Amino acid sequence: MVEYLVVGAGPAGLQMGRLLHRAGRDYVIAEAGSEPAGFFREFPRHRVLSTDDNSLFDGVPFARYSKRAFPDADDLVRYLEDFARPLNVRYDTRISDLTQYQARHVIIATGKKPYVPSIPGIEHAETYASAATDPTEYAGKRVLIIGRGHSAFETADNIATTARLTHTVGRTVQRIVKDGNEFVATIDGTGELRYDKVIVCAGFRRDTALDVPHAHTITGDSIKAIRHAARALHRTLEAEHHGVPWPHRKLRNRPDSLAATVAIRARQIPDGLADVVVPQGQHAILYDEMPTSERNGFVVTRTQVRHYRRNELIAVERRLHRKPLERFFSQQLAVPCIA
Question: Of 30, 137, 296, 337, which has the highest C-beta tally within 10 A?
Answer without folding.
Answer: 30
